[in-house]
Each structure stands twice: as structure tokens, then as C-alpha cells.
């Protein structure tokens, strides 16, 4: 067969999650159906071994490689460039599919030796239809071509990443995509193409990057991205990213296209929508989107000026991205009435484990996590499962955890060991034999930061001593009852011999998280599967290094109450409504202990 005329083409598709496997199949099929055939198809799998093994089996004719660089789209693209053998490297998003003449339209421009890159149009595929409030001038929010781009072939600063191409030799001269920029999982950062385009023009001033609207790809828009919440978050993240690019390349280069967009495109959008009541929401979206982007840019510049990293949340000075540490309590189909909110039924729990096992993340116990961080041997995408309080059903739950190839840490209140509905000493030894870590959760579950120092020390030390005796091995990790602690309590935990401790905070942990204040995400009866998926994909706020103001205010209020009225008595889970054998006596529970505050 006669090879196609023109440059050899390598196509790179980057993927990171099995949730988009169907989209990836459609993307690969669209490349196979091109009128101008690709000479090489490269699938880069971003730190997901299970997805990589599936892709190797599904596409034996493709070059399937792992992202060996920093996690994220930029690192994956750079790995694809490194594996490319073609003269031109084209990039297609895993949730996009190309028109049959996409490659032909791109390749035609490379007959001009001045052309360094060519990008096409990305058309949105809405889950149902475009939301009436969503202005077409903001289609860049969902990674698509927007009103304001040229309507015919034209030179541009940078193409749209969903369907773009560059000469392979350009990367040898200019370098790859900056890995400190760009999307990581579902975190909506961007601007890696902007920074690359600016760098290309600076190093190769005579080179041209073209926009070819006839080279079209169709970009899938998920339901969550069609929401106002995502719209504002993406606008804000764009501002943060633009601030980072401006810091690297200078504001003139970074914002030249954006200034024209603000001066011409957005005023026209407002003029179009101001006269009709039905289009006012769209005009409002233009205003709030512009404002959110401006706020993001201002915050990004302020952070950079203060020496902080250009991330959409608090700085995480580590190569390790955000890490979900999931917090469960009871797992049963027969929940205690007073504890129902913190109970997950067994079917839901098994679904969660299936999602975790299929996420490509590496399961660790809390002590393993802290130890591997200390020795800088942490895997790229860890996940941690924890249980608090020591319910008897945690034994069956832990067996399911192990059956799914995972592990966990179970935090136990030592005064509750052997009580009705709670783990027994033999259960703890069984859990340890399964490879589940046993951690301390105090002796009676008080709010430690409300106690006198000697009382708090006794609670923590007694817990450690009793657990060590129960399982016949040292205990490394601790979880603060109610998630409450302060600096003094953290010191006491370390002095008692623990090497790590978890709070709650309902935020993501990360490589800079204090090992004695690890953030966790509480899973309740109301936590939907989509939230578990989002956490596993890396969507969630990273815990800031400093305490939030509301946390300090809450502690002050609780301490004031404790000084005036005395510390609240430790609670016990009310277990009298558990299904138990008739001949097993149920101990009376003092009414004062009935206040459940996990």
C-alpha cells in the first residue's frame, strides 16, 4: 500500500480514569476511521495500571505507555511526545472524537515550512442541550471553541488542547508542556497550551501556529460541567492559571489575546443579551464568569507575590497530588438509630470498595502512608480507608476490604472493647492478622482539647497501653475523638508513642499534610457514589496548613462552655436496639452518655 503523502503523523491520546473508558473507545475509533490514516497511535495512561492493562489488551496495534512523569495531562502529553516517531504529533482528548477528515485538515498545513502547529475547532457535545444561561463566548470553560475565535483559517497564539498538533521537532527546540500547569484529574486548571504557545513564539519568532476551524473534534461535556458551579470554578481556575503564565512569561504576552476578548467579544455578548428578558441569565453568566476569572487572576498574583505556589487551593509543595483518606464508622444493614447518619449499608460499602479498587490508586494504612512519606517512597496515587470507634461490624467490613485487594486502619476506643456491638479483643487480633492496622481513638472518646493536660495525657496513654496489650504489638496511629485537637493535644499524642494522627476536616490530605493532623473525608449515609468517584479522581479541597478561622472559633466556644459548665461526659454509642441474642445481657447506658457526636 502506498503510504500517505505529507508528514508522518503520530496521534497521542491521554487517559487517566476507567470512568471514561467508553469515551476513550470512541476516540480511538474516530482515529481508525480517518481519511488520512495515522502512522502511529499512542495511548498514554496517567498513573492507572488497571486502565493501562485494559488498553494494552484492547488495542494491540497501539503504543500503550504509562505516564512516567508528573501526574496530570501535561506530564502525560510529554510522555506521548517522547514515544512519537512521526514528523507531526497530534493530540486528541480521551473524551473527544474527531471528524473523519480531522487529520487530513491538519496535515495539509504542514506543507508550509513556517507552520509549527495547527489546531482545530472543538465542538461541545452537551449531555442534553446547552443550558440557556451558558454563553457561547465561554465555551472555553468546557474545553471547546468559543465565539470570539476566528471563523476562518488564521494565525493564533495557541490552539485548543482537545484537538491540536505540532511538529515533533518543535518540542526538541522549545521543550515540552510545563508540568506545573494543566489539568490533574478533575481539577479544572489549564493554560498549559497558552504557556507553550508563548514559549514557542519567543524561541521560534518566525514560526506560525494556525487555527483551522474545518479540522473539527467533538468534545464531550458531562452533566457536572454544564452546571453553574463548575462554570464559576473553571473561570476562577482559569484566572489562577493565567496568573501563573503571566508570572512565567510576562503579563503582556500572557494576556494579549484575553485583552482583545475583553474589549470586543464580551461587550458584544452583553449587547446581544440585554434587550430580552429570556437572555438575561446568559448576560448574567457573562458578568459573573468574567468576575470570577478576574478574582482568580488577582488571587493568583497575590499568592505568587507572597511566594506561594500557583494552585487553586492552599499550596501543596510536593510531587504527590491530593490524597483521599476516607473515614467510615459503622457498616451494617441494621443501623443503630442514634448512629444512622454515620452508618453505611453493606451494599453501598461494597460499591465504594469496587470504585476504590478500580481507581488505580494504591491502598495504604495510615502508618504506611506516613512512613513512606518520611522516606520519600510514596506511590503516585495513594488512597487510605479508615474506620472510627471500633464497631463490631468493622470486622466483616475489613474482610470485604481485604477481599478487594485493599487495606485499612481501624481506630478503636479502648473502653468500648468487648461491649455490645463493639469489637472484642479477639476481633482486634483477627483484624491485625488480616493486615488491617489497629489504631487508637482514646480510652473513653472525650473531646481532648477540652480536658486538663493531665486528663488528656491519661486518655491517650491508657489507650496506647491497652491496645498494645490487646494485639501484642506496638500501635502507631491515633485518631482524635470528634476530630477535635490543638497543638498541645498533638504533642501529647506524640509523647505517648504514636507516630501519626488523623483529624477529620472533610478535606483531602496531601504531601505537606502534618502527620499529626491528617485530613480525612467523612463518608455518611448521604454520601453518593459520585462523590466517592470525585474524591478518587482527585476532586476536593486540599487541607490548608493553618487551621480555619471557624475551627478556632468553635474551639474557643467549646472551651468557654467547658470552663463554665465542666467538660461534657464522653458519649457511648447507644447499642440497645442492635439485634443481639436473647440470652446476652445488654448493659444499661447512662442517659448522659446518649449524646452521639462522632
TrEMBL record:
Domain of life: Bacteria
InterPro entries documented for this protein: Glyco_hydro/deAcase_b/a-brl (IPR011330), Glyco_trans_2-like (IPR001173), NODB_dom (IPR002509), Nucleotide-diphossugar_trans (IPR029044), Polysacch_Deacetylase (IPR051398)
PANTHER family assigned to the protein according to its UniProt record, in alphabetical order: POLY-BETA-1,6-N-ACETYL-D-GLUCOSAMINE N-DEACETYLASE, PTHR34216
GO CC entries: extracellular region
Keyword Signal: yes
GO term, biological process aspect, one: carbohydrate metabolic process
Protein name: Glycosyl transferase, family 2
Localization, UniProt: Secreted
PROSITE patterns: NODB (PS51677)
Keywords (A to Z) from UniProt: Signal, Transferase
GO molecular function, a single term: transferase activity
Main subcellular location: secreted
Amino acid at each position: 500500500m502506498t503510504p500517505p503523502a505529507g508528514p508522518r503523523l503520530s496521534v497521542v491520546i491521554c487517559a487517566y480514569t476507567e470512568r471514561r473508558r467508553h469515551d476513550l473507545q470512541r476516540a480511538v475509533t474516530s482515529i481508525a476511521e480517518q481519511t488520512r490514516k495515522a502512522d502511529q497511535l499512542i495511548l498514554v495512561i496517567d498513573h492507572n495500571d488497571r486502565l493501562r492493562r485494559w488498553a494494552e489488551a484492547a488495542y494491540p496495534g497501539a503504543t500503550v505507555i504509562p505516564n512516567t512523569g508528573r501526574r496530570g495531562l501535561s506530564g502525560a502529553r510529554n510522555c506521548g511526545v517522547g514515544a512519537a516517531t512521526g514528523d507531526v504529533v497530534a493530540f486528541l482528548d480521551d473524551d473527544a472524537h474527531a471528524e473523519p477528515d480531522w487529520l487530513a485538515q491538519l496535515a495539509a498545513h504542514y506543507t508550509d515550512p513556517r507552520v509549527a502547529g495547527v489546531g482545530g475547532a472543538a465542538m461541545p457535545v452537551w449531555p442534553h442541550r446547552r443550558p440557556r444561561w451558558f454563553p457561547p463566548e465561554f465555551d472555553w470553560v468546557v474545553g471547546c471553541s468559543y465565539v470570539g475565535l476566528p471563523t476562518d483559517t488564521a494565525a493564533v497564539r495557541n490552539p485548543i488542547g482537545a484537538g491540536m498538533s505540532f511538529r515533533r521537532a518543535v518540542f526538541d527546540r522549545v521543550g515540552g508542556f510545563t508540568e506545573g500547569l494543566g489539568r490533574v484529574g478533575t481539577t479544572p486548571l489549564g493554560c498549559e497550551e497558552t504557556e507553550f504557545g508563548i514559549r514557542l513564539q519567543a524561541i521560534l519568532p518566525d514560526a506560525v501556529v494556525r487555527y483551522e476551524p474545518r479540522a473539527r473534534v467533538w468534545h464531550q461535556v458531562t452533566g457536572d460541567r454544564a452546571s453553574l458551579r463548575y462554570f464559576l470554578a473553571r473561570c476562577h481556575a482559569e484566572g489562577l492559571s493565567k496568573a501563573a503564565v503571566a508570572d512565567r512569561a510576562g503579563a503582556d504576552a500572557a494576556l494579549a489575546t484575553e485583552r482583545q476578548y475583553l474589549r470586543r467579544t464580551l461587550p458584544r455578548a452583553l449587547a446581544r443579551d440585554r434587550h430580552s428578558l429570556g437572555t438575561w441569565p446568559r448576560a448574567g453568566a457573562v458578568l459573573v464568569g468574567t468576575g470570577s476569572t478576574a478574582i482568580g487572576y488577582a488571587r493568583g498574583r497575590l499568592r505568587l507575590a507572597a511566594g506561594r505556589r500557583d494552585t487553586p487551593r492552599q499550596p501543596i509543595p510536593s510531587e504527590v497530588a491530593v490524597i483521599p483518606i476516607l473515614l467510615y464508622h459503622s457498616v451494617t444493614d441494621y443501623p443503630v438509630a442514634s448512629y444512622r447518619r454515620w452508618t453505611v449499608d453493606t451494599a453501598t460499602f461494597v460499591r465504594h470498595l469496587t470504585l476504590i479498587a478500580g481507581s488505580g490508586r494504591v491502598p495504604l494504612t495510615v502508618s504506611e502512608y506516613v512512613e513512606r512519606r518520611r522516606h520519600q517512597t510514596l506511590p503516585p496515587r495513594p488512597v487510605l480507608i479508615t474506620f472510627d470507634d471500633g464497631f463490631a461490624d468493622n470486622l466483616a467490613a475489613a474482610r470485604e476490604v481485604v477481599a478487594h485487594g485493599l487495606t485499612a486502619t481501624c481506630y478503636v476506643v479502648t473502653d468500648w472493647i468487648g461491649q455490645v456491638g463493639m469489637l472484642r479483643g479477639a476481633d482486634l487480633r483477627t483484624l491485625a492478622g488480616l493486615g488491617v492496622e489497629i489504631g487508637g481513638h482514646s480510652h473513653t472518646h472525650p473531646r481532648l482539647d477540652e480536658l486538663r493536660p493531665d486528663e488528656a495525657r491519661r486518655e491517650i496513654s491508657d489507650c496506647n497501653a491497652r491496645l498494645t496489650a490487646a494485639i501484642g504489638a506496638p500501635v502507631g496511629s491515633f485518631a482524635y475523638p470528634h476530630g477535635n485537637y490543638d497543638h498541645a493535644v498533638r504533642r501529647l499524642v506524640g509523647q505517648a508513642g504514636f507516630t501519626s494522627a488523623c483529624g477529620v476536616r472533610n478535606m483531602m490530605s496531601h504531601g505537606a499534610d502534618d502527620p499529626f493532623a491528617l485530613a480525612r473525608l467523612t463518608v455518611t449515609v448521604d454520601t453518593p457514589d459520585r462523590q466517592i468517584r470525585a474524591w478518587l479522581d482527585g476532586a476536593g479541597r486540599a487541607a490548608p496548613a493553618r487551621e480555619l478561622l471557624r475551627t478556632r472559633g468553635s474551639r474557643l466556644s467549646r472551651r468557654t462552655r467547658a470552663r463554665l459548665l465542666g467538660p461534657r461526659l464522653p458519649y457511648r454509642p447507644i447499642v440497645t436496639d442492635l439485634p443481639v441474642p436473647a440470652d446476652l445481657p445488654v448493659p444499661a447506658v447512662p442517659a448522659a452518655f446518649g449524646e452521639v457526636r462522632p
